[in-house]
Amino acid sequence: TSAHAGQKQNKEGQEIPIIDTLDLQAEPIEIAIASAGIAMSAIDQRKSVAETDETTDAFTMEESQTISGRVVGVVMRIRELEGLLIKKVNDVKWVGKYGE
């Protein structure tokens, strides 16, 4: 199985993976690789913009690695994080009061 629901083109015409986080058959390594690809695509896009825009700086190697690691970490935990968010929202009194 694949963690990819397909491919999408960014503004520069580069193919980036789309992750189907609802695919319970997706292998964790596939999800990690796909999410790293998305992060790297965004970092590359920032680098391209920085080459032509004086107000935008390219990320350093350390910043790029940190960003990629955080994106992969969040995507790998997305189901858990979503469940935690739902629980916290449901614990707020006004949500129940107004049926949100």
Helix content: 55-70%
What gap, in angstroms, lies between the N and C termini? 36 Å
Work out the number of β strands: 2
Q: Kindly state the mean pLDDT as a whole number?
A: 84
Sheet with most strands: strand arrangement: 1-2
Strand content: 5-15%
Number of helices: 4
Largest sheet: 2 strands, antiparallel
The quaternary structure here is single chain
Output the helix-strand order.
Answer: EEHHHH
Characteristic key phrases:
100 residues, extended, mainly alpha, disordered N terminus, 4 helices, two-stranded antiparallel ribbon, single chain
Notes on the structure:
- The protein contains 4 helices and 2 strands; from the N terminus they run ββαααα.
- It has helices spanning 28-52, 61-76, 78-90, 93-97, and strands at residues 4-9, 15-19.
- Strand 1 (4-9) and strand 2 (15-19) form a beta hairpin.
- The longest helix is centred in the middle third of the chain and has 25 residues, at 28-52.
- It is extended, with a radius of gyration of 17 Å.
- It starts with a strand and ends with a helix.
- The model is unreliable at 1-5 (pLDDT under 50).
Summarize the SSE layout with pairings.
Elements: E1 4-9, E2 15-19, H1 28-52, H2 61-76, H3 78-90, H4 93-97
Helix pairs in contact: 1-2
Please sum up the structure shown:
This protein has 100 residues and is mainly alpha-helical. It contains four helices and two strands; from the N terminus they run E-E-H-H-H-H.
